[in-house]
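Here we describe the complex-level prediction in full. Unlike the single-chain runs in Section 2.1, the two entities below were treated as one system.
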Amino acid sequence: MNRYADISELIAEQAADSTEQKALEAVARLVARELERPVPYRPEFKEALRQQLMHAARRRMRPWYRRPIVVGSGFAAVAAAAALVIGLQLAQPPAVQGPNEIAGQAPSVEPGPSAEPPPAAPGGGATYLVALPADLPEVRLADERTGADSLVSPAGAQAVGSVQLMRLTARPDEAAFRAMATRLGFRGESRRTDSGWVVTDEDRSLTMTTDGTVQYADVSEPDAEVEPVDAQGAGQAAQRFLDQALLPVHSQPDISARDDGFMVVYTEHVEGRPVVNARTEISVNQAGMVVRARAYVPSGVTIHATYTEFVTAQEALELAEERGGSFQRAELVWVRSVGDGTVYLQPAWRVLGTNAQGTPVARYVGALVDQDDSAE
Amino acid sequence: MHFDRIYAYIHRKTGDRQVAEDLTADTFMKALAHIQHYRYTGQPFAAWLYRIASNVVIDYYRVQRPTVQLDEGLSAFSGGLEPEEAALALDDRQAVSRAMQALSPDQQDVILMRFAGDMKLKDIAVAMGKTEGAVKALLFRALGTLRRKLRESGVQP
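The structure predicted for the assembly as a whole is:
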């Protein structure tokens, strides 16, 4: 009764005595014998349902560019569902690559649809051995200093059952770069570089890389007669710049004073989690002029793959402590990772604690593990 | 195959071929409509389908009182046996069927998913939104109830 070894084990564990154990084993055998028999069905019903599903699936298969961004892999999933009634066994559908996808930053994404509740227990479901993309870079971010109060702030996002690897869908190209340069008042010709495009105009320069990173610099002398701006004025100047460049942000800025003006920082969130290494940073001088900017081309986000094997919060704390220090809390964040022609948002743990010197820091630990390594 | 198991599960829960066909179609159409949620949650696919099927059956009973016809279709399982063997087999089948009706809906689900659906206990737990320990407890109690009911029916497994 190998097929039911788990039931034999359960009975052996819980039966009061050997008599009950034997009796329950016999009941299980009888029930198995009766329930293993196939239930006959009308073949014409199965065929009609197959047709109905295929028809419905075809209606759902719209061109990729018209699909909602979070349903990026729906094509494969829908086809897989339709294949059910043909008798195919479905494993995790492979992620579908969008045509000619390049990358960009994800300032905005709608939360992933989740009408179904998550699995009851982390790791409780079957493990799908979905390999990590070969071009996915390892998470290697320097520690960030934090306030001592970070450990008592409300807990951030936690993993429940699975974590997802996202991929950006934007395709920055030269036309988009030229349009941006024109809106920012550049008159010179743009030119191609190894990593993207650049345009210069006397004291100003603008670059955009193929992964969607935009950098702007203005080294012109500020007008000495202009009244200095305050933090609010700096924030307004940064917002005007982003509006002009059509680089929308969807978060409140964090504005800090510097010796030469203000730094305005926007941290974008995807599904409620911050993208920690791709913040939009605008440096505004005291005259209210944007002198440096680093931003990202707007992009949609699609689910690349779902992983049921991942580094847990507890494991992340332990991994962080292996690098020295003491860590007490972990929350899930996104790390923007540039692969070969694809930009990913990979889940990572931001663990909070103190480093070996006792300084409060946030340390980053990747949440994805190679499924081959983790499989038992 | 998913179709066979889901159909069998619903048929055994409802005892009516027409209802089983309607609810099976409903289950697969709902699965198709929400396939992106399956990807989002990353559950085992069979568990996800069973969960939908279970909800479809529950919804059906919310608006319609159960009128289980215990013996429907049982004769179809007797092929290839001598008349006497077939009669005994039918007795066992009817006894198991009746005993199953004495189980709670959750206990029925565990028994059907484990024996008819050949699912692992941990996957059943996911399908039912319970812990594996709770599923084991349901399964053990279900076997105890089945033993008692089968004994009352004069069946000695």
